[in-house]
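User: structure tokens for this one?
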Amino acid sequence: MELDTVKDAFDRVVKKQKLSSSKSQEIVDQVGHEIEQTLAKIKAINDPMSPVDLKSILSELKLKLNTVGPLKQLEGVQKERNINLGKYPKLLEKSFNPDISKAYRNVDFDFHIVNQIVADHFYQQGLFDLGDSLIDEAGEPEAIAIRSHFLEMYQVLEALKVKDLEPALNWIAVNREKLSQNGSCASLELKLHRLQFVEIVKKGSKADALSYARTHLAPFASLHMNEFQKLVVCIIWVGKLDSCPHAELMAPTHWEEFTKEIMEQFCSLAGRSCRSPLNVAVAAGVEGLPTLLKLVNVMAAKRQEWQEMKQLPVPVELGKELQFHSIFVCPVSRDQDSEENPPMLMPCLHVLCNQSIMKLSKSSSRTFKCPYCPTQVSAAQCRQLYF
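Assistant:
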């Protein structure tokens, strides 16, 4: 929303600038036209030494220029433009350089956990020197446990950049049992061999491609016959792959997709999200900061202290990628669910906490309207949800 406001202000400045430029040019052209006409009259005088004719022509020019009033017009146009130009930097300052300390809330952080989170983030990003330095300086030797896992991951990724599949295949072989539990082992192997097969086909060797297909792709044929047939057909089109009916298999994006997938599998086996907790926390903070700053300013005007509030009076809208539902917060009472106040599913499939339902039904069997749709609901029809 802040960016939309800035864009609208920028568009207004651009519009005023163009209008100012156009109007200024129009005034200059008008003055120039009057001067040119005056020069033409002067040249047309029969007696160039006649002071009377020259004086009358110049007086006429002066009168016309006074009527046009170029300086007054230019001052008005520039003043209107300067007003918008003056407001724009203030808006930028307010939007992009706010005093974020106002939205800060005193929290007793467990620095042991914070150090681990930051170190894990560095390792997950491949910044091993930074992670090691943090661990040494903070005295957190146990945080190094995850280092070897991500180090192995980046060794595999670096090998994939040069089309070397051996480290990835070795990793799959070592972790076959764990990967098989989530059904990804065979899929990863097939994708790896498919990528290698395509590279062989691109090099133009039919014999090598056929040999590789028999050795490495044939074991997957029974479960992936359709894909196996497409790959084998590509051998026929060696040397003219642009005309191959399955040319999409040659796209370089397949390497990028596989790299992303193997990163996800590495993180999954390590019990980590593919996106580091620090990354998520910072992204959520940046997205929610404008709302918090507005709240602080509003409450300051009302002389209220938001630091003392147990929960925010307004929702902080975040993108879907930043929404997690390990806990449930009642949309009516804004209370977090608990054993005494569990989430309840209504017949219309909307969910409220039990206490909210009791208040709406006035603790009786009477029906009430769902806060989110026209459905009439009774407390007896609601069922407890378990997360």
